[in-house]
Amino acid sequence: MARELKIALVDDHALFRNGLRRLIDGQHGCRVVAEAGDGTEFLENAEAVEADIVFMDIAMPQMSGDKATMLALERNPNFKIICLSMFGDENYYSRMVEAGAKGFLMKDSSIEEVFAAIEAVSEGEEYFCKEVMQTLSSALRRRDDTDALSEREVDVLLGICRGLSTQEIADSLFISKRTVDAHRANILEKTGSKNTASLVVYAIKHNLVEI
After folding, report:
1. Which of 2, 54, 81, 100 is 20 to 30 A from 74, comparing alpha carbons?
2. For the whole model, what pTM was predicted?
């Protein structure tokens, strides 16, 4: 993260918000430029907030995180939103991603994972916390729902779910990056997904995983 990244925090728990600000403000090129106690408060000033990344709590009073995410992106499509949760609720999670969130973190995630999410999302990628990826990976191994995918496509899918890069997947399977990209394209087409975020939502909706 060479350039400064401006961060906004939206969470109704002031103690958590203050703690997160202290951990990331001024670290690794990050600067917290805005805070709000709920979605309504954030939206009142969203058009004036010059934030690159917004940490958005899923469950807040006044307005749900998914609705706040959708409305915030209508006001500023350049926001990259990472949703925060204390627990995995598949309905909330699916709605957050469909609303446009680019990442998902549990509130007990390590600070290293927080910065990993910031870096990934700032570079235009999606990021899902290890708990979601590990659960998805295990579930896919147990299910027969992947019969439509070839054995190698399942291997690539599991690598994606573990958060591995294209090169790491290629190295682990002893294939080229181009082959991984081809398998990834086939997986997305077969599952009707547009990106990694859509793939996770697909898995949840088709009961491949519960989070």
Report:
1. 2
2. 0.70
